[in-house]
Fold O-acetylhomoserine sulfhydrolase.
Amino acid sequence: MKKRRSSPKNAPAEKPWFLRQKTLEIHGGSIDGDRNLRPGLYRTTAFALGSFERGRRLFAGEERGFIYTRINNPSVDTLERRLATLEKGEACIATSSGMSAVTLIALHLASSRGHIVASNRLYGGVFHLFREELPKLGIHVTLVEKPFDLHAWEKAIRPTTKFLYVETPSNPVIDVFDIAALARIAHEHHIPLVVDSTLSTPALEQPLTKGADIVVHSLSKYMGDGEVIGGALVGTQELMDAVRLSWFRDTGPCISPDNAVVLCYHIESLFARMHEHCENALAVGRYLSRHPKVRKVFYPAFGPDARRNKKLMPAGFGGLMAFEVYGGAKKAKIVLENLKLFWHAPNIGEARSLIIHPATTTHGQLTPKELRHANIPEGMLRLSIGREDPKDLIYDLGQALSKI
Ligand code: PLP
């Protein structure tokens, strides 16, 4: 669309000139008829269907309109339009959590004994879903143990493979994957690439612009700023309509309108917050990478792949990082228990900095061998770097590390 500079009128419809990402977090997805400056809260179960014929058409998917909050709702719709715009997708389905979004897309694309090829660098809950639960439904998942090796992905693809799945950056090792290269492999095999973009958010990366077909989010992290649980799928209108009228409608993993409104408010500050998270993580990472008691820092800006990673994610890597102390889990425990400012909590992307020991918590469902293959050592501590002054975070880490 041609760029045009003019002052916005009061009309809230989609603006006729090109809006930048920073503006879209506040205005994205607005449509003719939006009259509320702030997203309205529609706390209701059902909507009037109108005529007998309209009721039939709505239920058959022949007409768009609000039916029942398990299927759609105006507050949720505002969130969905905003997310779709930010991700450069046609449509979105907001869900009750990130896990329900992953489950939904797996059921939709791979039910009837389908096969999935996924990176083994995954959030522990998704890893467990893929390894334990989906196989019970006849959906088998090959976890690629060398996910940086594109041939390993190729080799894992079978005639029954329904999609490729990658989390980038990954939790907790913060591996950055080449979305465009994986999309090429997927498309050569006529299957879609699904990307979990929770840790980057659309402020740092938009996978659909790099060739991915579907984006998955846990909105419980940066988007929700520590206040609500939610998830999302973004993709084509056709796919989102198909999911909404099948597995989504029939299994019910909808988000509440209240949570959708809270998410819209928090998304309005996403870009500024992500910038702070990135800056603070860099400062903490620099400090830890020089600390004599730290064996390794896991953050894409450091190490031999830093240049490659910066090329893949020039806007930054977000606030999640990890580090390994010398001395394994015993020493990691001492550091964790001596921190004064960091909260010991299982979340990512809040204003306050958080710490956790992945091997015994978020990734405790992996076997010791799987932990090794996923590059998660016993002495690793994961940090969700918040938006405090980084000097205070560094001071706290320094005093805790001095105890080992
Ligand atoms: N994807 C990633 C990368 C995550 O870190 C998480 C949770 O930590 C999830 C998905 C699952 O999201 P939720 O907790 O919203 O179900």
